[in-house]
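thread from #wetlab-drylab

HS: before we spend reagent money on co-crystallization trials with phosphoenolpyruvate, can we at least see a predicted complex? here's what I'd submit
DV: go for it
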Amino acid sequence: MEPQKEKRFIVLANWKMHKTLAESIDYVKALHEGLQTPGDRVEIILCVPFTMLGAVSREVTSSMVSVGGQDVHDRDWGAFTGEISAPMLADVGAAYGMVGHSERRKYSSETDEVVNAKARALHRAGIVPIVCIGETIDERKRGLTLNKLERQAMVCFDGFSGDEMERTVILYEPIWAIGTGHIATAEQAGEAHGFIRRMIERLFSGKAASMTRIVYGGSVKHKNVSDMLKVKDIDGVGVGSDSLDVENFLGIVERCTEAVSMKIS
Ligand code: PEP
């Protein structure tokens, strides 16, 4: 399913390496049943394991829901045993592809250069890259958060056209907040998001800065998401562990939908 052109607020689920095929189908059915007031201001993106992409895509019937991969190879085809390319993601219905998650950077030694090559492969295939960036706790304590974000952005978005930048989703995930229960404060997230937006303006254009969606991820739960929704420069939330339970995830979707409709009314 093609992502729509207008800037919709993102609620992203990152299932990581969880769920069976049967569980994923049950989840999508329950998600659709629970979407009480389908609207056009919020977009749910389910980033699921490769093995479930085709089945989950076929199960999606709501224009609110899109499907994404959690990684991709930087080449389109070839002798790369075990890899999945961007055209293959498109072929099974993925509209999005996540690159540069801190777990891939940590366990698969992915550098910003690799993330850039993967993001460009996604653009070539017409898939929207979700590019993850974020600082470690050590970098934050040493006052290096903004330097790190700047360095990552300079490399990860290198060679993008303005149009590609506009379509890209930036997932700001402070590494110290992922899976720890320590969500960033609204002030910390606001500072990072504002900085990233100004940087996109400087590197690309005002239009790219306003269109690019900047999403916060790291210990977002149905119980704490409301605090994050007060952040000025936030265009969405990324959810890991709390997205595995469809009821909790629906709770997050509901709170985001309310907050977005309050902002525009
Ligand atoms: C993630 O890893 O993308 C994430 C947001 O995880 P969690 O919500 O569990 O911190």
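DV: The beta strands are 9-14, 42-47, 65-69, 96-99, 128-133, 169-172, 213-217, 236-239.
HS: ok that's useful, forwarding to the group
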